[in-house]
Structures are given as structure tokens and as C-alpha cells.
């Protein structure tokens, strides 16, 4: 295997995008996909220039994909893979009913409304969510 060139600061985002594309391309061999997955794992640090806030917004978008009825099953599968790779729990905690889990989600949004460290934008989102679910 040829030596890999060191990456300059602007390149990691493009490399990661190419590797992700290879993973989802049906014309790419299993060996190439395995190498792409391995390389992405090596690059697990957030891309340069991506703040943790931006990363959270991106992950939130993947969560929204799971609940959007207009999203394809393939897109939902991809979103699940990304979220699970980030260690995000997608199912209700063990021993907690779906109703109890929903109550906990609503409680979290209500708490966000009273937390001074939560941004105005996040509070707006919390209000919208609570209104949509009849909790405000």
C-alpha cells in the first residue's frame, strides 16, 4: 500500500466526503469499502473548522431524518448508522416504556426553556417542539 500523504488543513473534509461516498457506492468493491471505513475511523476527529455546536446540529439533522415520513428507508438506515457510530442511543432505555420516554423528552425541552445557558435559538426550537406535542 502506498504511503499516505499528510493532509493539509483544507483537505480532510474533502477526503472524508470521498470516503463516505465510496461506502455508499454500489460499484465499489467490498475491499475498497473496508479500506474507506478504516480510513474514516482513523479520521474520527471532527473535521477542521467544524465546531462541536455544528456537529450537534448535523447529528440533530440525522435524528430528524429518522422521524420524517418523507425520508426514504435508505436515508433512515444511513442516519441510524451515523448516529450509532457517534454513540447516540436511538431506542428507549431498557425498562422504560415509550410513554415514559416521551415524557422525559418533553421534560428535557421544558428544562431547556428555563436554562440560562441554552441559546435563544434552542429555546425557540424547544417551544416549537412542545407546542407540536401539546405540552405548552
What is the global morphology?
elongated
Radius of gyration: 19 Å
Indicate the mean pLDDT. 80
According to DSSP, the number of beta strands is: 0
- Termini gap: 59 Å
Structural class: mainly alpha
Task: Walk me through what this model shows.
The chain is mainly α and 136 residues long. It is 62% helix and 0% strand. It has helices at 12-24, 30-42, 52-67, 73-85, 98-114, 120-132. The chain is elongated, with a radius of gyration of 19 Å.
How is the secondary structure organized here?
Blueprint: H1 12-24, H2 30-42, H3 52-67, H4 73-85, H5 98-114, H6 120-132
Features:
136 residues, mainly alpha, elongated
Write a brief structural summary:
Helix content is 62%, strand content 0%.
